[in-house]
């Protein structure tokens, strides 16, 4: 996928390529905090680490794609746009 957002995960035993669509949206303030919180939530739901990261990346892709445009500069994500479960 030429325009992908790729992450590499290592769980201590195996490497995983986590690929998702790259969204052209300058309003990405808070993506790191959102991703780490979503991973933690999925781990609390007893998902494996790779599955938790996949779910978190899917959530992050959806909130970036929602395209909230507030203020000037790199604005926030649109957390209220998606169903979490």
Description:
This protein is of the alpha+beta class and 85 residues long. Helices cover 36% and strands 16% of the residues. It contains 2 helices and 2 strands, in the order E-E-H-H. The chain has helices at residues 31-44, 49-65, and strands at residues 4-10, 15-21. It has a two-stranded antiparallel ribbon with strand order 1-2. The longest helix is centred in the C-terminal third of the chain and has 17 residues, at 49-65. It is globular and about 45 Å long. The model has no long low-confidence stretch (mean pLDDT 84).
Task: Output the strand order for the largest sheet.
Answer: 1-2
Question: What is the string of SSEs from the N terminus onward?
Answer: EEHH
Estimate what percentage of residues fall within beta strands.
15-25%
Distance between the termini: 27 Å
The coarse silhouette is globular
Number of strands: 2
Radius of gyration, CA atoms, in whole angstroms: 13 Å
Tell me which oligomeric state these chains represent.
single chain
Q: Mean pLDDT, nearest integer?
A: 84
* Poorly predicted residue ranges: none
Structural class: alpha+beta
The helix count comes to: 2
- Give the % helix: 25-40%
Biggest β-sheet description: 2 strands, antiparallel
